[in-house]
Structure formats: structure tokens, C-alpha cells
Amino acid sequence: MITISVCMIVKDEEPVIRRCLSCVKCFADEIIVIDTGSQDQTAAISREMGALVDTFAWNDDFAAARNSSFSRATKDYIFWLDADDVIDEVNQRKLCELKQHLDPSVDVVMMRYAMAHAKGATPIVFERERLLKRSCGFHWQGRIHETIATKGTILHSDITICHQKEVVNDPDRNLRIFQIMRQNDEPFSPRDWFYYARELNDHGQRAAAIQAYETFLSQEGWVEDQLQACYDLGVCHLRNNDREQALQAYLRSFSYEVPTSRICNAIGFWFLDVQCYAQAAYWFDQALRSTHRGGFENEDEHLFLPMLELAICYYYLKENELARAWFEAAKAQHPSHSLIIKNEPYFKREQG
């Protein structure tokens, strides 16, 4: 049986740290918490929960802080978490089983990461490198949105970690760090350009965001980021009332990968907005058919959303039987969803 070091970096996580650490006690052989400057009881609670707590002088570099936590690990494998991550009982049991039976030749175990940006929202699910063999010397890279370049034997598991953020302590932090990097003429990786663009976009700086997305797309980046950048570019252009540029941005994604559900839905909405219902229905149908997961997508984009929009398209095309069928299919996915409740009277009226 392998042994596991759980490694974390934290700052002012008093509301959630106990919840997080209670999720790992069943499989962790040691818990290492690196505090980057908490002013609350985060460190005291972590020690109370059995963690080894050390400090790291924060220098606007997440990779450096995570590498500091990894350097203190002593067990066979390292499992990283954020303080606002949660592992439910089902996935705790899966982790215990993995610990019991993992082939030591495995270097990296990928796990699902479910991120909900608001309570009750459908989470975005994607894979992250989560359990790493310590002897491989894996190293975090990137001051912001840090990542690890994986290598060796990789196992893809269905274990899911849920990211449940309660409070955003400093919503301007990431943009501020990027701006400092630019002021200091620090080189940007393609990944840096992508996330810099997203921060600009999130802060309403659309013109600068568009320029940063274009800079990213002119380089060799991860295909998941390229697809997301095309989608984000389309949204930026729509907010600028530049519909043609928005459509071109969506279509541009096809040069990187086969159509994803998110892009197909976006094109469907583009045609729906101009009441081209047959064209819109075509693209929502393509969203249902897409088997490719393009990075930051959620499950509703593959089933519920295109089903509901197909119902609406066929309603306006006066193909009532198809409209009702697609509405019932969407309703079966989320019977109490606000969009189902809002639209149901229209389809009941058609039945009447």
C-alpha cells in the first residue's frame, strides 16, 4: 500500500479549513499546510486537525508556494488540495481504495475537478493532476493558475474533488499580479496570456482582453485553452455589439479541435437571436451530438441546455410535436429548473 502526503497552501481560510482537512484524514499519512500570511485562526485550526504547519513569505507566486509545500512531503505520493476543496464520502472511499490498490508504477493520477462558481450552479468539471509520485520530482510552474507538466505513467480516475468557494478574499489579486509582471517586463507564457485575458475580461476591460486573447491564440497553447479563448472572444465581441466578429471567433475554434458543445450552443444562440430558428436548431442538435469535452464546460451544455433550446426553436418553427418532445427531454434532466418552470406554460398551451 502506498503512503500519501496531503499538501496545501492557505491564507485566511478559517471558514473552510476544518471542512477541508476533515475530508482527508481517512487517507492522509501526513498533512502539510503552508500558511502564506493568515491573520485569522487558519494555522491554529490546521494544527488542531493534525497538520504540520509551516510558513511561506508570500511573493505573488503560487507555484513557489506550492513547491515549498511539496518540498516538505515525505511520503510516496503527494496529493494537493485548496482549502475550499471538498471530498464527499463516496470519493473519500474511492481514495482509500486507490491507496490500497494503486500500482506503484503509476506516476500521476488524474482526478475530476468540479468547480461551481455560485451556490446551486451546475459545476464545470475537468481533469487535474492530483496525486503525484514524490520521487518523480514534479514541479509547479506559473505564478498564477499554476500547473504541473506531467510525465510518466498516468492513470485517469473517476474520483471527483469539489471546489466550493465560500468567499473571495481578494478578487483583484490575480489581475494585480499580472499587471506587476507586465510592468517588470517579465516574460509571459501562452498560459499566462490566456489567464491574463480572462482576468481582464472578468474585470470588464474588454478591449484589452480581446488583445490578450489574440496574443494567446497567436502562440502554441493548450487546446482546451484555445477553445475557451475562442468562446471568450466571441462573448467579448457580442458585448461590443460586433456580431460578425463574434461568429468568426466561434468558428475559429474549429481550427483547433472538433466542435464542442459549448461552441455549438454559442452558435445556436447567435442564430436564435436573429430568429433564424432552423439554423439555430441545427447547431443545438450538434451540441447534443458532440462527444468532445473542451475544457471549461459543464454537463448541462451537453444535454439540458441544447434540449431546451431545441424545444424553443421548434416551438417557433411551429413543429409542435418536436417542440414538446424536446421540452420533456429537457425537463427530465432538471424537473425543477427555473428555465423549465418559466417555459412550461408555453408548451402546455400548445398541448391544449
TrEMBL record:
Keyword Transferase set for record: yes
Name of one Pfam family that matches: Glycos_transf_2
InterPro entries the record matches: Glyco_trans_2-like, Nucleotide-diphossugar_trans, TPR-like_helical_dom_sf
CDD domains, per the entry: Beta4Glucosyltransferase
Keyword terms, alphabetized: Glycosyltransferase, Transferase
Superkingdom to which the source organism belongs: Bacteria
Domain (Glycosyltransferase 2-like): residue spans on this chain: 5-104
MF terms in GO: glycosyltransferase activity
Protein name per Swiss-Prot or TrEMBL: Glycosyltransferase
Species per Swiss-Prot/TrEMBL record: Amedibacillus dolichus
